[in-house]
Specification:
heterodimer; A: about 120 residues; mainly beta; 7-stranded mixed sheet; 4-stranded antiparallel sheet; about 0% helix; globular; B: about 110 residues; 6-stranded mixed sheet
Chain lengths: ~120, ~110
């Protein structure tokens, strides 16, 4: 079974530029998560989708971050414009369905460096 | 509100020695508990999870964890570590709405 796919693996941009990350979850997984992991910290949830609807985006900085999950499958996370403090690993995860019983499967992440 | 505390940010241990990584949580609702491992430049991989039933949970790579409700703890243990266990370990709680992760414990196994 294929895992969660993310691209690119690495990205370096200058501040105020824009960037987009792509995620393809495990086939059949209805729930998709985007996490931000700053060096030395645990992952922080940015947004959670159930199919193509947003379940939780309370920690998404909406003035610069946006995400979509068209057709309830793959997803794109965008940052525009980027700031230095956005340097982090962006992890995508998926689960069969939401709820307390389910584990999340993670992709390898995209390491973003803003200079 | 929910939170996860991993008391040790770094744990060095000699190869073949036992190790315990500590995790405490607080929550106003029932939680389900997980341990994930992250190898360098990789995503998170599930080690084990506690949903219900026996409080001693066994996972992959010889790891186990014990859920202690009265102490709100979910410590991870391994009786004999290998070099390949060097990684970052994250404790997490799932309230049903989202996962809350601790800040991680960096385990370094010394030959």
């Amino acid at each position: 079974e294929a895992g969660v796919a993310q691209s690119p693996r690495y990205k370096i941009i200058e501040k105020r530029q824009s960037v987009a990350f792509w995620c393809n979850p495990i086939s059949g997984h209805a729930t998709l998560y985007w996490y931000q992991q700053i060096l030395g910290q645990g992952p922080k949830l940015l947004i959670q989708f159930q199919n193509n609807g947003v379940v939780d985006d309370s920690q998404l900085p909406k003035d610069r971050f946006s995400a979509e999950r068209l057709k309830g499958v793959d997803s794109t996370l965008k940052i525009q414009p980027a700031k230095l403090e956005d340097s982090a690993v962006y992890l995508c995860a998926s689960s069969f369905k939401g709820g307390r019983y389910t584990e999340a499967f993670f992709g390898q992440g995209t390491r973003l460096t803003v200079v | 509100a929910q939170s996860v505390t991993q008391l040790d940010s770094q744990v060095p241990v000699f190869e073949e020695a036992p190790v315990e990584l500590r995790c405490n949580y607080s929550s106003s609702v029932s939680v389900y508990l997980f341990w994930y491992v992250q190898y360098p430049n990789q995503g998170l991989q599930l080690l084990l999870k506690y949903l219900s039933g026996s409080t001693l949970v066994k996972g992959i790579n010889g790891f186990e964890a014990e859920f202690n409700k009265s102490q709100t703890s979910f410590h991870l243990r391994k009786p004999s570590v290998h070099i390949s266990d060097t990684a970052e370990y994250f404790c997490a709680v799932n309230t049903g709405n989202q996962f809350y992760f601790g800040t991680g414990t960096s385990l370094t196994v010394i030959p």
